Amino acid sequence: MNKFIVNVIIKFIVVLICGTIAFLCVYHDYSLYSKPIGKITTVKTSGEKQQIQAEIKNGEEKGQFRDIELKYDKALVYDQKYHKGDVVFLDSELKTITGVKRDHWVAAAVILLLGMLLGFGGRKGFFTTVCFVADIVIFIAMTLLYVKGVDILLMTVVSCLLFAFILLFLVSGASRVTLISFFVTIGALAVVGLLCFALIWKTANMGYEYLDFLPEPYTVKQANHLFLSQIMIGCLGAIIDIAVTITACSVELIRKTPDISTKALVDSAKEVADDITGTMINVVFFTNLAAIIPIFIISMRNDIGFVTVLKYDAFFEITRFLAGAIGILITIPLSVMASSMFLRKGEKR
Amino acid sequence: MISVLCIVLVALCLLVGGDRTAKTLMTLSLNAIVLVAVIWAISLGLPPMIVSIAAILIVICITIFYQNEVNDKTRVAFIAVIVIAAVMLALIAVFVYGGHLQGMSFVGENKIRQSNGYSGDIGVDMFAIAILVMLWTLVGAIVDTAMAIVSGVYEIARHNPEYEQRELILSGMKIGGSILSSTVNTLFFIFAGEYLILFINFSMYYSLEVMINSREFAEGIINIIISAVGCIAIIPAASCLAAYRFSKKII
């Protein structure tokens, strides 16, 4: 017990020290930026006005202090209210604040996650990190190629195969279960993809002007492809998870009782599915829909009806959630079918 | 389109799973009702922080107790989720406050902006709303992990009454480790889908420097990481609580 605790404490200290050093490096990366950066040293707030003194951190004026005056809205929808210690970007004349420097906050979050995964996740944590890095690399490659003019839907299909391959074979290792799960994942993804494909092409006006961040100008085809890619990537993680669980379970069942009837197999799969689908669908629900809360509130405070927002702004999030949930459910029968097909065929030979 | 997908979802729920998968439909509708109620309440001007915390408690109750019935296991999972959610709430508040993550977007031809007649003077604290969004995402993810660990530890304690607390904690951690990567990956891909268009927009029209310091990017990354960190943090919390609760009882 004592050795265990000492071990945890040593790990904790090592992770803490490494994390702090990495964080401080990003925090003091002022010289990497060409834009002037200031650190706010004093703030005087009166009403909705702020008087700010900032110390310039890079460039020729480094070390000088500048006074800045600004106004903000109490609700902070479009504006920022600054605090002492904030690091901000300034315009070239050093008179106004153009944005907040957030890179060290992003870095802090990344370091926190890496520390927890590598420090306490053990071997699994290491593999999860490796998968993460691989996924992100593929993801970046996708966006860069898109800018070069490659069709996004084509790239999404290819990279979904890659993602599934990396996740399944790297984490679980090559085995029969992994192989079957891989095919199930592709199958389920194809079903969801085709269903949404048909629905999107049948809908005359998708209202893409409400899809956040859509790069303009866009053609309807481009927008359709982008939206379909979003749906497929969003489903992928959940589908892989369910595919592995149900396939592993059915393979185990068939191996233990080779003469199991199809009905008994389906019933057992239902039993396992009951344990995981409920919470899984809820994860998909919250993760997809939480992001639309602010849009609802700001619209409704501006006297735009609930139904209008639901119909236009929330449409895309709701569709992504529904597609994800359908993906989870469709994976279950596919896993049972695939595992009984593969295994029984093998025995007949 | 949404109605067709809804019909497919309902049909699959009833066909594919057993009774409890069908129950998921009820849980989902209840959660959706809570979500709508929260939006109404906040837009009517009720204090967002209080409404959010109350709503999240209700949602946790629905997902844990209604979906899985009230028993020792769900009670332990409930406490674990509340503890971690409270700790993470503090962390979220630090990130949102320090990183200025509240407010609306500036990227792309966004419809919601001041020049389109959307007034910023809405009298609702967007700081609280930003916290609510992150907390909401987090809770959905940690409930899943907490339930898996608590039921796992419960089964182990039932089959091995001679196990001591420490052994139970270790097996809880082991269960957590085996589901960790799949949960984190599920989250990652949902966010990757959501932010795919944002990334493309940034790489087309903005520099890397603008991207990593932008509110949208920082909010997305920090949101997913907070959820993932919550999923990791709940593993020891749920293991310890479950071990404490179940080791003393010989079942």
Characterise this structure:
The complex is a heterodimer of chains A (349) and B (251). Chain A is an alpha+beta fold and 349 residues long. Chain A folds into two domains: 1-120, no CATH class; 128-348, no CATH class. Chain A has ten helices and five strands. Chain A has helices spanning 2-27, 103-120, 122-148, 152-172, 176-202, 220-256, 262-289, 293-301, 306-312, 315-348; strands spanning 37-46, 49-56, 65-71, 87-90, 97-100. Chain A has a five-stranded antiparallel beta sheet, with no helix packed on it. In chain A, β1 and β2 form a beta hairpin. Chain A starts with a helix and ends with a helix. In chain A, 42% of the residues are buried. With 251 residues, chain B is mainly alpha-helical. The termini of chain B are far apart. Chain B has one domain (47-112, 122-247). Chain B is globular, with a radius of gyration of 21 Å. Chain B contains eight helices and no strands. Chain B has helices at residues 2-16, 19-43, 48-68, 72-99, 126-159, 165-205, 208-213, 215-247. The chains are: A alpha+beta (349), B mainly alpha (251). At the A-B interface, α2, α3, α4, α5 and α6 of A face α1, α2, α3, α4 and α5 of B. Chain A: The chain crosses the membrane at residues 12-30, 104-121, 126-146, 152-171, 178-201, 231-254, 275-298, 318-343. Chain A: Pfam families: YibE_F. Chain A: Keywords: Membrane, Transmembrane, Transmembrane helix.
